[in-house]
Amino acid sequence: MESSEVQRGRGRSPFDLIMNQIRRKRTTSDRKSTSGRFLSRQAESGGLPEDRETEEERDGAGVVPGPADLAESVCDMGWGRVCVFVKRLGKRADSRTLSLAHCDLTATDVLELATLLPSLSLLEEMDLSWNELIGGCLRSLTSHLQNVGGLRTLRLSCCRLTADDITALGEALKCVPVLEVLDLSWNAGIGGSTLQGIVGKLHPTLRELYLVACQLTETDATILGGIVSVLPRLCVLDASCNPLLAHTQTEAEDGSMSETEPGKGGVWGLGGLVPSLSHTPSLTTLRLHDCGLTTQSLGLLGGSFHCLRSLCQLDLSCNKGVAGGLSLLSPHLALLSHLGGLDLHLCCLTHTDLQALIQALPSLTELTELDLSSNKEVGGVVSDLVSALPLSQIKLLPLNGCSLNQESLSALALALPYLRCIDVSWSKMVGGRLALLLEALQPSVTQELRLSSCDLTTDDLLHLAVVCKRGVLSSLRVLDLSYNGGVGEEGWCGLLGEGGLGSLEELDLSLRPLTSKPSLLTSNPSPLTWLPTLLSAFPHLPALTRLSLQRWTLTAQEREQVNHALRKREVLLELDPVLFASSANQEGLEEERYEE
After folding, report:
1. I need a surface site. Which of 90, 394, 532, 594 has the fewest CB within 10 A?
2. Looking at the record, which segments are called Disordered (predicted)?
3. Which of 283, 171, 298, 180 is nearest to 238 (CA)?
4. What does the pLDDT look like over 508-542, one tens digit per residue?
């Protein structure tokens, strides 16, 4: 016959096991209190207890845990599962932030994560971006979002979301009433009316909405208008990289839709979105980069500025269709009294466009950033541009790819003392004249200096070395001298040997990619003869995190020397593969695009 202890040990329920765990976790004070009560009972009875210890006494003298203790133990077990799950993915557990981006999550992982949400009741931010394998199975997660009702940020960019995923998300949004940030960018499956699944589902608390590169069409523009019309607190709307968003179409007699020329009676894609912006008085950032905007789009957008007086950042870049129509927008810019940043780079702006913009600039009293880069006509109006800007507060004025001439360089020098970032890359006129710009710099102001493909000479770099030695560039974080093959060894050694770049984080000294000519593929690329000076400079570059030496020839021994010098530092070193010819055959060089 089995003993009573054995019988009691069989068939224990999970509840009993949890109770035993709680008993073992009793504090020392609890144990002393129990011992005190036991001795008191012993004195009152006048005798000693039996000289044996029952199983109940070993487990905690028969003390039954209350509901609070039981809930605490269950919570501890759930959090332990969360820690194991997150650690397996190479991340650290945080009760308020769950960042699982770039973790190669699978459908199975999503199911497991869903079961862990009850243990993440304090969660405020969830980032599952760049996990392309979870597309099509989001419903298994969203059906449990009621367990994280305090969620404020949800990022699902580049997850290959499907129409069913968006529908499931829309159904679950009612469970997260305080959501402030929603990022669905880089999900091509969202385009084509799929956004309808979240219309009317977002709460008025939403402040930021990101729909970058979702293949949105003109139909989606109308749907997006319906979404933002009920978001009075919306501050950021980013619909960039959707080239069909402002697509202009017209209906043929057979009912089919075809592209039409601007101004020919077609339906403006932004016509369904822009009027709804009147319901977003808190909007501070509007990004429509590469959205297929046309001159009509500018007129429509300008007409809405009277409702967007809080706008601080406006990005209309990479919309070549706006060329010749900036006069439709510029008169309305004066309404944006808080505008601090305006981005119009790569918009094929004409001389007329630029003159219209220059007339509007004096009214933009809070402007600190103006990007007109990659617009060739800018080179001829730099003088007028600088005269119209509030120079004392301008921090960013990139003019790379703007066909600068000697006169424009002289005019630009007036603005340099105030600029945090200086970019005149792809301007051949800078070569041999860099001293003109360097003499205008003020100490501890410039943080970025980009001089890529400027035909710099050895003398130019020696002038730069003198400026560094004076401490003028002591706050410089980024220095881009790439694609300047005309600099001799003396120039590189002079720059690296003078110091004065203690804050430098990124240094790019790469050479221009070679063409695909067979003779060049078999020729010997440029040797790094100034390597000893570079190695000696590393101790004087304590903040360096990135060094690019692409297309310089290093022997195996020289590569080892560079790696050895940086072995104890986290520096991203960019070198060409050992077989140099494989990296030389590169087509579509960016410089060639500028020169066309």
Report:
1. 90
2. 1-65
3. 283
4. 999 998 733 333 333 445 678 899 999 999 999 99
